[in-house]
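Entry 14. Ran structure prediction on the chain below.
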Amino acid sequence: MVGRRRYDEGCAVAHALDLVGERWALLIVRELLFGPKRFTDLRAGLPGASPDVLSQRLRELKDAGVVRQHKLPPPAGSWVYGLTEWGAELEPVVVGLGRWGGRSPTMPHDAESSVDSLALSVRALFDPHAAAGLTTAIALRLGEDRFSARITDGRLEFTRGDVEAPDAIMDTDPHTLAALLHGGRSLADALRAGDITIDGRRASVTRFLGLFPLPEPAPAP
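Output, C-alpha coordinates:
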Protein backbone atom coordinates (compact mmCIF):
# COMPACT_ATOMS: atom_id res chain seq x y z
CA MET A 1 0.00 0.00 0.00
CA VAL A 2 3.06 2.27 -0.31
CA GLY A 3 2.23 5.59 -1.96
CA ARG A 4 -1.52 5.34 -1.41
CA ARG A 5 -3.32 8.20 0.24
CA ARG A 6 -4.58 7.13 3.65
CA TYR A 7 -6.79 8.68 6.29
CA ASP A 8 -4.62 7.41 9.16
CA GLU A 9 -7.33 8.18 11.70
CA GLY A 10 -8.12 6.30 14.87
CA CYS A 11 -11.58 5.62 13.46
CA ALA A 12 -12.79 2.21 12.28
CA VAL A 13 -14.71 3.74 9.36
CA ALA A 14 -11.61 5.59 8.17
CA HIS A 15 -9.49 2.45 8.58
CA ALA A 16 -12.03 0.39 6.61
CA LEU A 17 -11.80 2.94 3.80
CA ASP A 18 -8.00 2.69 3.96
CA LEU A 19 -8.44 -1.05 3.25
CA VAL A 20 -11.25 -1.16 0.67
CA GLY A 21 -11.93 2.46 -0.28
CA GLU A 22 -9.83 2.62 -3.45
CA ARG A 23 -11.67 2.58 -6.77
CA TRP A 24 -12.69 -0.94 -7.90
CA ALA A 25 -11.88 -2.53 -4.54
CA LEU A 26 -15.45 -3.04 -3.34
CA LEU A 27 -16.52 -4.06 -6.84
CA ILE A 28 -13.89 -6.81 -6.75
CA VAL A 29 -15.46 -7.93 -3.46
CA ARG A 30 -18.87 -7.84 -5.16
CA GLU A 31 -17.60 -10.08 -7.94
CA LEU A 32 -16.25 -12.62 -5.43
CA LEU A 33 -19.27 -12.88 -3.12
CA PHE A 34 -20.64 -15.85 -5.07
CA GLY A 35 -17.35 -17.71 -5.07
CA PRO A 36 -13.73 -17.63 -6.33
CA LYS A 37 -12.87 -16.45 -9.83
CA ARG A 38 -9.95 -16.47 -12.20
CA PHE A 39 -8.35 -13.17 -13.15
CA THR A 40 -9.96 -13.41 -16.61
CA ASP A 41 -13.39 -13.85 -14.99
CA LEU A 42 -12.83 -10.75 -12.88
CA ARG A 43 -11.81 -8.83 -15.98
CA ALA A 44 -15.04 -9.89 -17.69
CA GLY A 45 -17.11 -8.69 -14.74
CA LEU A 46 -15.19 -5.40 -14.44
CA PRO A 47 -14.46 -4.35 -18.04
CA GLY A 48 -13.81 -0.76 -17.00
CA ALA A 49 -10.80 -1.73 -14.89
CA SER A 50 -7.53 -2.09 -16.77
CA PRO A 51 -5.48 -5.26 -16.15
CA ASP A 52 -2.81 -3.24 -14.33
CA VAL A 53 -5.31 -1.54 -12.03
CA LEU A 54 -7.13 -4.80 -11.35
CA SER A 55 -3.82 -6.53 -10.49
CA GLN A 56 -2.87 -3.68 -8.17
CA ARG A 57 -6.22 -3.76 -6.35
CA LEU A 58 -5.98 -7.53 -5.92
CA ARG A 59 -2.50 -7.18 -4.42
CA GLU A 60 -3.76 -4.52 -2.02
CA LEU A 61 -6.76 -6.62 -1.00
CA LYS A 62 -4.51 -9.64 -0.46
CA ASP A 63 -2.12 -7.56 1.67
CA ALA A 64 -5.13 -6.35 3.69
CA GLY A 65 -6.34 -9.91 4.31
CA VAL A 66 -9.58 -9.44 2.36
CA VAL A 67 -8.70 -11.65 -0.63
CA ARG A 68 -6.64 -14.81 -0.97
CA GLN A 69 -5.27 -16.54 -4.06
CA HIS A 70 -5.20 -20.31 -4.35
CA LYS A 71 -4.97 -23.05 -6.94
CA LEU A 72 -7.97 -25.23 -7.72
CA PRO A 73 -7.44 -28.99 -7.45
CA PRO A 74 -7.10 -31.11 -10.62
CA PRO A 75 -8.42 -31.35 -13.24
CA ALA A 76 -9.04 -27.57 -13.25
CA GLY A 77 -5.70 -26.52 -11.79
CA SER A 78 -6.44 -22.81 -12.28
CA TRP A 79 -5.30 -20.05 -9.96
CA VAL A 80 -8.29 -18.19 -8.57
CA TYR A 81 -9.02 -15.31 -6.22
CA GLY A 82 -11.51 -15.68 -3.40
CA LEU A 83 -12.60 -13.84 -0.30
CA THR A 84 -11.13 -14.76 3.03
CA GLU A 85 -13.55 -15.53 5.85
CA TRP A 86 -13.08 -11.96 7.08
CA GLY A 87 -13.45 -10.58 3.56
CA ALA A 88 -16.77 -12.40 3.15
CA GLU A 89 -18.08 -10.39 6.11
CA LEU A 90 -18.24 -7.44 3.70
CA GLU A 91 -21.36 -8.90 2.05
CA PRO A 92 -23.88 -7.00 4.19
CA VAL A 93 -21.82 -3.84 3.67
CA VAL A 94 -21.89 -4.26 -0.12
CA VAL A 95 -25.58 -5.23 -0.10
CA GLY A 96 -26.47 -2.28 2.13
CA LEU A 97 -24.48 0.10 -0.05
CA GLY A 98 -26.29 -1.26 -3.10
CA ARG A 99 -29.71 -0.76 -1.50
CA TRP A 100 -28.73 2.78 -0.53
CA GLY A 101 -27.43 3.57 -4.02
CA GLY A 102 -30.52 2.02 -5.59
CA ARG A 103 -32.65 4.72 -3.95
CA SER A 104 -30.74 7.47 -5.74
CA PRO A 105 -33.04 9.44 -8.07
CA THR A 106 -30.22 9.45 -10.63
CA MET A 107 -29.53 5.69 -10.47
CA PRO A 108 -29.08 4.45 -14.11
CA HIS A 109 -31.17 1.29 -13.77
CA ASP A 110 -30.93 0.55 -17.51
CA ALA A 111 -27.11 0.68 -17.62
CA GLU A 112 -25.10 -2.50 -18.14
CA SER A 113 -23.82 -4.39 -15.11
CA SER A 114 -22.14 -7.71 -14.43
CA VAL A 115 -23.95 -11.00 -13.94
CA ASP A 116 -22.80 -11.11 -10.32
CA SER A 117 -24.09 -7.59 -9.74
CA LEU A 118 -27.51 -8.73 -10.97
CA ALA A 119 -27.31 -11.84 -8.79
CA LEU A 120 -26.41 -9.75 -5.76
CA SER A 121 -29.44 -7.53 -6.40
CA VAL A 122 -31.58 -10.66 -6.06
CA ARG A 123 -30.19 -11.18 -2.56
CA ALA A 124 -30.41 -7.49 -1.70
CA LEU A 125 -33.96 -6.79 -2.88
CA PHE A 126 -35.68 -9.98 -1.74
CA ASP A 127 -38.93 -9.16 0.07
CA PRO A 128 -39.55 -11.83 2.73
CA HIS A 129 -43.11 -10.61 3.36
CA ALA A 130 -44.05 -11.13 -0.30
CA ALA A 131 -42.60 -14.65 -0.10
CA ALA A 132 -44.53 -15.65 3.03
CA GLY A 133 -45.94 -19.16 2.68
CA LEU A 134 -43.98 -19.85 -0.52
CA THR A 135 -41.75 -22.89 -0.89
CA THR A 136 -40.09 -23.31 -4.26
CA ALA A 137 -36.79 -23.98 -6.02
CA ILE A 138 -35.85 -22.12 -9.19
CA ALA A 139 -32.84 -22.73 -11.44
CA LEU A 140 -31.52 -19.76 -13.41
CA ARG A 141 -29.40 -20.30 -16.50
CA LEU A 142 -27.79 -17.08 -17.70
CA GLY A 143 -25.57 -18.17 -20.56
CA GLU A 144 -22.69 -20.05 -18.95
CA ASP A 145 -23.65 -18.85 -15.46
CA ARG A 146 -25.87 -20.98 -13.25
CA PHE A 147 -27.66 -19.85 -10.11
CA SER A 148 -30.09 -21.55 -7.79
CA ALA A 149 -32.85 -19.99 -5.71
CA ARG A 150 -34.50 -21.83 -2.85
CA ILE A 151 -37.32 -20.04 -1.05
CA THR A 152 -38.80 -21.44 2.13
CA ASP A 153 -41.51 -19.44 3.88
CA GLY A 154 -39.98 -15.99 3.62
CA ARG A 155 -36.32 -17.02 3.43
CA LEU A 156 -34.14 -16.99 0.32
CA GLU A 157 -31.02 -19.02 -0.37
CA PHE A 158 -29.50 -17.75 -3.62
CA THR A 159 -26.20 -19.29 -4.68
CA ARG A 160 -24.07 -20.02 -7.71
CA GLY A 161 -24.58 -23.47 -9.19
CA ASP A 162 -27.42 -25.80 -10.11
CA VAL A 163 -30.32 -26.59 -7.84
CA GLU A 164 -31.46 -30.15 -7.34
CA ALA A 165 -35.01 -31.01 -8.50
CA PRO A 166 -36.14 -27.44 -9.31
CA ASP A 167 -39.80 -26.55 -9.73
CA ALA A 168 -38.81 -24.50 -12.78
CA ILE A 169 -35.77 -23.73 -14.91
CA MET A 170 -35.42 -20.22 -16.35
CA ASP A 171 -33.12 -19.97 -19.37
CA THR A 172 -32.49 -16.36 -20.36
CA ASP A 173 -29.82 -13.64 -20.53
CA PRO A 174 -28.84 -11.12 -17.83
CA HIS A 175 -30.37 -8.14 -19.66
CA THR A 176 -33.77 -9.87 -19.95
CA LEU A 177 -33.70 -11.02 -16.34
CA ALA A 178 -32.87 -7.49 -15.16
CA ALA A 179 -35.80 -6.13 -17.18
CA LEU A 180 -38.13 -8.76 -15.70
CA LEU A 181 -36.97 -8.13 -12.14
CA HIS A 182 -36.47 -4.38 -12.12
CA GLY A 183 -37.46 -2.92 -15.49
CA GLY A 184 -41.18 -3.59 -15.57
CA ARG A 185 -41.08 -6.03 -18.48
CA SER A 186 -43.78 -8.68 -18.38
CA LEU A 187 -42.99 -12.37 -18.45
CA ALA A 188 -45.55 -12.88 -21.20
CA ASP A 189 -43.76 -10.35 -23.43
CA ALA A 190 -40.36 -11.99 -22.86
CA LEU A 191 -41.82 -15.42 -23.63
CA ARG A 192 -43.46 -14.19 -26.84
CA ALA A 193 -40.16 -12.62 -27.96
CA GLY A 194 -38.25 -15.82 -27.23
CA ASP A 195 -35.98 -14.01 -24.75
CA ILE A 196 -36.72 -16.55 -22.02
CA THR A 197 -37.74 -20.18 -21.89
CA ILE A 198 -39.27 -21.90 -18.88
CA ASP A 199 -39.11 -25.60 -18.17
CA GLY A 200 -41.47 -26.45 -15.33
CA ARG A 201 -44.04 -24.49 -13.38
CA ARG A 202 -44.60 -21.09 -14.92
CA ALA A 203 -46.60 -20.02 -11.86
CA SER A 204 -43.50 -20.47 -9.69
CA VAL A 205 -41.49 -18.22 -12.01
CA THR A 206 -44.22 -15.56 -12.03
CA ARG A 207 -44.31 -15.52 -8.24
CA PHE A 208 -40.50 -15.52 -8.05
CA LEU A 209 -40.16 -12.48 -10.32
CA GLY A 210 -42.44 -10.45 -8.06
CA LEU A 211 -40.32 -10.88 -4.93
CA PHE A 212 -37.68 -8.22 -5.67
CA PRO A 213 -39.20 -4.72 -5.66
CA LEU A 214 -36.92 -1.74 -6.14
CA PRO A 215 -36.55 0.46 -3.05
CA GLU A 216 -38.49 3.70 -2.85
CA PRO A 217 -36.43 6.48 -4.51
CA ALA A 218 -34.97 9.14 -2.27
CA PRO A 219 -36.31 12.69 -2.73
CA ALA A 220 -34.82 14.47 -5.72
CA PRO A 221 -32.29 17.18 -4.83
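The beta strands are 67-71, 79-83, 135-142, 145-152, 155-160, 168-172, 197-200. Will compare against last week's run tomorrow.
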